[in-house]
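seq as requested:
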Amino acid sequence: MTTVNLGSQQTTVPSISSSAMLVELNISVWTGRKFDKGVSKEIDQQKHTTTRAGNYSKKLFADEPMFDAIQKFAGNARTYHYHATMPWSDSGLRLLTTPMYFDYNKEITGMQAEYDKLVDAFMSSYDKSVIQAQMKLGTLFDPNDYPDAQVVRNKYRFSVRYSPVPEAGDWRVDVNNDALALLQENYAQSYKANLEQAMREPWERMHEALQRMSEKLSGNSKQIFRDTLVTNVVEMCDLLEKFNITGDPTMKRAKVKIESALMGITPDALREDDHLRLDVKSKVDGLLKEFQW
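struct tokens:
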């Protein structure tokens, strides 16, 4: 815990520097799109518009599996990153808890290696793909739209950086005492706001998973749902523990009660047993009511 001055008052801010770190994931991809001014003008003329009504953007590698695979993989990596971390600031920094570090680092390092393989595979056939694009695009093809291979390769980046979470009252700058006090006050307010935002996200995720389960378990007729209806909630219980960097007792209690409500429950049993389905729904609704996150 760190005590800082906020104006004329003192406040205690939880210290999370030993239970979490900051992580920044940067993935850049080449969009492979090009604005075609001539086609845009042709469309406007065909539709008899009196102004520039739209812009035509062509895909330089339409239906190119290796190019599309990179785009999809980058999206999946970002999705995992957001799933495994908590929000911290608008700059792109995310909060990674210490219990999550080893799993996250293993997963994201593997993704980085796979990303490089996908990019290298695409670049090895880049010239061939340009020739194929010429056949696919017809008169839309313009060789000037395609940069040199090395220029394209430099557009693909995948990096991850870790940094410690500064203490709320930690500000090492050479300024006078009044300015230092003001800086500490401003940072403490920002620190508290970031921490509150970070701790709110696990609750929101759990609420969303439970709400979805409640909706799918509604009614007496058998509902069609995937196994993830149950596994997502079980996984979120694990995240509630790993994301609980402040030791919130309410979050601990919620994890225990949710696990108890779903103990021994399988998706197949919920599909086949109307009474069980309604019983579990009742418990889930009770949890949603009890934990008003």
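Residues 1-9, 171-175 have pLDDT under 50 and may be disordered.
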